[in-house]
Design brief:
Blueprint: H1 25-39, H2 91-94, H3 113-117, H4 127-130, H5 148-160, H6 168-173, H7 177-188, E1 196-201, E2 203-205, E3 207-209, E4 215-217, E5 223-225, E6 231-234, H8 237-241, E7 249-254, H9 257-267, H10 277-280, E8 285-287, E9 290-292, H11 298-310, H12 316-319, H13 322-325, H14 330-342
Parallel strand pairs: 1-7
Antiparallel strand pairs: 2-5, 3-4, 6-7, 8-9
Helix pairs in contact: 5-7, 9-14, 11-14
Length: 363
């Protein structure tokens, strides 16, 4: 039975153990099964879009836009610190996107230059959005432990215009093949971790989107009905502003989302789609080049499902998802994203708990 946390504050996230993987005959069989099943799923005809034609979808909770008139908030001055780190940065240094902070350099191998400092052509340091842990914020992708081959393919799709959205098209276009390879391999080497807690609720804090596209609670503590939205907020506001790789998020979702999402993910939703495990592995932690999705940001997952359906993602990997999302409504996508985001991230080959056995995070 799914247990749902209704109210939670002062959350702390812990590192999960992971290990190496080895491709087995069973893995290869599941890859073949994925291709076979998708071959018979009706494909949605989607035309390619150019960067000039592409427009941000009008779903403000999922595709954040900076508030034109942000609320008045006290500016943070002086050196900033985060728990457990001996380093300090000013807010201006933290916001320098070509030199993002690295609060815990001993927790990872040395960063490639493009990750730490960007590259020519206004390529920003990858860690500025994806963090030095690879876990990212809801407005960017979680890359920790995602296969290097998959990341490379996505960079190629961004460069070619076969994948639109976010802020990656121009950066990928100016990224050298060697920088792309080094960044992909470095992020693939990082450890997946629990990064957000999914909470079902009727009401959420009122929020605004700051200059860095981070959604934050409005000062004053007012709330409002959640409606049919996912609202992701920092575990700690100062931690998010500091790009602290230890400070995660709370994903608020409408009540009933997890059970509805589980039905879709594990059974195919009565014929609307197929079981996610067929392609993404038994625990949704990846299979071959098909990416891990368990425990990723629900808001980010919703955006990707939407992009597959509206044609903003139409590369070779995107083609596998056309039929999968063809019959999904936005509410279906929301529920699927909520449930998948509630699962435990890790290594598919070393995970023995399948989503069908109720692998939601417990209180």
């Amino acid at each position: 039975m799914t247990r749902v946390i209704q109210n939670q504050s002062h959350l702390r996230f812990t590192r999960l153990p992971t290990g190496g993987t080895r491709r087995s005959v069973g893995t290869l069989f599941r890859v073949f099964s994925c291709a076979l099943v998708l071959a018979v799923v009706p494909a949605l005809r989607i035309g390619a879009q150019s960067a000039r034609e592409w427009k941000l979808p009008d779903i403000p909770w999922a595709f954040p836009i900076r508030d034109k008139v942000p609320p008045a908030i006290d500016e943070r001055s002086g050196p900033r610190h985060v728990p457990g780190s001996t380093k300090s940065y000013t807010q201006d240094q933290i916001d320098d996107l070509q030199n993002p902070p690295d609060w815990f350099p001993d927790e990872h191998t040395p960063m490639p230059r493009v990750v730490a400092h960007g590259a020519e052509g206004e390529v920003l340091g990858c860690a500025s959005c994806h963090l030095a842990s690879g876990l990212g914020h809801p407005e960017s992708a979680n890359l920790a432990g995602v296969s290097a081959a998959y990341i490379m393919r996505q960079l190629s799709d961004f460069k070619a215009g076969a994948r639109m959205g976010e802020a990656m098209n121009d950066m990928a276009r100016n990224l050298s093949d060697e920088d792309a390879r080094q960044a992909s391999e470095w992020f693939a080497s990082l450890e997946p971790r629990v990064w957000q807690l999914v909470v079902e609720t009727d009401r959420v804090p009122k929020t605004f989107v700051n200059i860095h596209l981070m959604r934050m609670p409005l000062p004053g503590g007012a709330d409002e009905p959640i409606g049919n939205r996912i609202i992701e907020l920092p575990q700690d506001i100062a931690g998010a502003e500091s790009r602290d790789p230890h400070s995660g998020f709370i994903s608020y979702v409408p009540k009933g989302s997890l059970s509805k999402g589980k039905e879709f993910v594990t059974t195919g939703g009565g014929g609307k789609t197929i079981q996610c495990a067929i392609c993404h592995g038994p625990s949704l932690n990846g299979l071959g080049e098909v990416p891990a999705i368990a425990g990723h940001s629900p808001m980010y997952l919703f955006r990707q499902l939407y992009y597959f359906k509206d044609g903003s993602r139409h590369g070779s990997m995107g083609a596998l998802m056309k039929g999968v999302v063809a019959q999904m409504s936005q509410d279906d996508m929301l529920a699927i994203a909520a449930y998948v985001g509630s699962l435990t991230p890790g290594s598919e080959e070393n995970s023995s708990t399948k989503p069908t056995e109720g692998n939601e995070r417990k209180k």
